[in-house]
Amino acid sequence: MPAPEPRITRPDAAAWSPPLPEAPGFDHLVVETPGLQTHVAAVGDGEPVVLLHGFPQHWWQWRTTAAVIAARGYRAICPDLRGAGWTVAGDPRVRRETRLRDLLALFDALDIDRAHLVSHDMGVLTAFHLTYDHPERVRTAVQLAVPPAFMKFSPKVAPGFRHLPGFIWHRPGASLRGTFSEAYVARPMSEATVEAHLAPMRRPDIDAAVRPLLRGLVLPEAMRMARGVYRRRRLTVPTLVVFGRQDRPWTEDVLEHLCRHPERYADRVEFSYVDDAAHFVTDDAPAPVADLTLDWFQRAA
Length: 301
Hints:
There is one protein chain. By secondary structure, this protein is of the alpha/beta class. The protein has 10 helices and 10 strands. Helix 1 packs across helix 10 and helix 2 packs across helix 3. The radius of gyration is 18 Å and the shape is globular.
């Protein structure tokens, strides 16, 4: 029996629970594919740019960056990935490539043949899968706050994973506010901003997705990187890797050490660093991130 055709709807503002945070100019859609109702926020018209949020964030992470990209003649498409934001999944289980399958279904539903791809934090893992396994769907890639998949592991970067145990053993209802502490931002976030990022955690299904995401996606992918799986493959999509200069321990010197000779593993990879920014680089420095991204589209497409 053939799969049902995807359906796209535009619910009115009162339909969203909890209410969507404000972001002027964005259009809000629900894309229904088998087993999933994906919330998508989009702005602008033109060549598609798909932006994959990090954890524990959602589409609103891109509110400023996406608006700048759209103002330059692109259509910025910001989905809430499975287990985040206002997306509703019929099955709570998450495997390593679950979000990849979701993303491919979304591309097809929105008639996206190829897109520029921008990703941050956990969203970068799904970007890895798309760029390595389906490079024909990606024009260029920009990944934020995560090293290339072909990096070598070193004890020097162990502090970069200090946050994982708390997520792996997340207790329902436990606060994730500490994720936005001074260890991960260059300038303090306002209470309103933190609340907007964490609002969907009030939904039991989103709160319950924390453990499956970490155990089903993050840990298996980390093990593949540690085993050098991606050093035996080749990245053909032009990729820009961006870090905030205050994102410890991912300093420029450390990344140069871990990612030596990128030409052995990729056709084209470059690194850029943003001043006055840490891990949550799109909150610390949204405009510089947008400028680097737009420049990369022009140079690498």
